[in-house]
Amino acid sequence: MNRLVVIAGGGTGGHIFPGLAVAEALSAVEVDVHWLGVRRGLEAELVAQHGIPISLVDLEGIHGRSSAAVLRVAGQLPAAASAALSLLANKRPFAVLGVGGYASAAGVAAAGMLGIPWVLQEQNSIPGWTNRSLAPWADSICCGFEDALGYFQSLPSEWTGNPVRPDFFSIEDLVPHDPPRLLVLGGSQGSLFLNQTVPRALALMRSIGTTLEVRHQAGPRWADVVQTSYQDLALEASVCPFLDEPWQSLSNADVVIARAGALTVSELAAAGRPSLLIPFGAAAANHQEFNARSMQRAGGSLVITEAEAAPDHVAAELDDLLRNSDRLITMARNARSVAREGAATRIAAKILAIGGVL
User: Fold this and answer.
1) What gap in Å lies between CA 167 and CA 1, rounded to an integer?
2) Residue 236 above 80 pLDDT?
3) Which domains does the chain have, with CATH numbers?
4) Are 276 and 318 in contact (CB under 8 A)?
5) pTM of whole model > 0.85?
6) 3-class SS at 34?
7) CA dihedral sign of residues 295, 122, 105, 132
8) Distance (Å, whole) CA 108 – CA 224
9) DSSP symbols for 110-127
């Protein structure tokens, strides 16, 4: 049997990094991986950096797009589906893993047409429309959040957790610093909303005598602008476009302000760090708020919606949190309690099982 798995999907780090973790787990048992992605996604760069061969198709997403854009995407689908079919027919993998994103649907649909077993990886606590539509035909569904299982009742779903690099789990328990240390995470592309809101909130905190050390991951497009914002407000902050080793920044942080992408929430849980989460309001099916509320119910996060997240409100909530070290430590412990170590290994084992390799 050809010991090859095709991983289909990408677009954002939230889809790519879990897939890369599974690819590493498969490599550890001598299974090769080929990636199917889209030209405009981050996978074109990130996957190649990990030495994984990749094929790219032309395909865009449709969420929140105009009618003209939706029609353009519809025109791309036949060619993308044909390319996926050609790839799978040529490579003959024993299984396909769909990690979400534009190319995922094309890859798993092609697998179904060719009779190749396939697995869905659902990272969020509320599945997106694509995964809910595809799920009835999947051989297995690996859920990053336990909450997602309720959407796949009577289907072969399992709470595997989201693949998080082992470095996050090795972070030591929180011991608050003086002055406190804040980490701002905007996701792989950065967050314009956080980039505009957080510096203004911190300026308000300084006006009432609260000082803290700040590291702000702003995204490649915004880093210079955010650095200038802090300078204009006479605030000191370490601003970077991207965190190559985010576990190091988390290990140094006492509290995190972040969006609520599935991977971000899973990394916060693995690291055992308290957070103030401001979900992306335009996320499909509002899935980021569902992710955030899941962590809030566990007692590891405070959640503020974008509508509520005026700088003065963010400042008040953050200041209240930083003044109570015992509360921070409890939230950190609660966050870590919902982490699922070994998710990549569990998903890799599931792929091997449905592919008949075990």
Assistant:
1) 34
2) yes
3) 4-163+342-354 (3.40.50.2000), 168-337 (3.40.50.2000)
4) yes
5) yes
6) strand
7) negative
8) 40
9) HHHHHT--EEEEE-SSS-
Mean pLDDT of 57-82: 59
Dump pLDDT digits (tens) for 131-146: 888 999 999 999 999 9
Name the 3-class secondary structure at 306: helix
Residues 6 or more apart whose CB falls under 8 angstroms from that of 303 comprise: 260, 276, 277, 278, 279, 289, 292, 293, 295, 296
For residue 243, count other CB atoms closer than 10 A to its CB.
15
Q: In this predicted model, what pLDDT tens digit does every residue of 264-302 receive, in sequence order?
A: 999 999 999 999 999 999 887 889 999 999 999 999 999
Cis peptide before 117 (omega within 30 of 0): no
Residue 335 to residue 291: CA distance in whole angstroms: 13
* Tokens 């909303």 -> residue: 193
The residue type of 241 is P
Exposed, middle or buried: residue 142 (CB in 10 Å: 0-12, 13-18, 19+)? buried
Count Cβ neighbours within 10 Å for each residue of 197-207 and write b for 16 or more, e otherwise.
bbbbbbbbbee
Q: Which of 61, 93, 52, 99 is nearest to 80 (CA)?
A: 61
Residue 41 is classified by DSSP as S
Contact 113, 137 (CB under 8 A): no
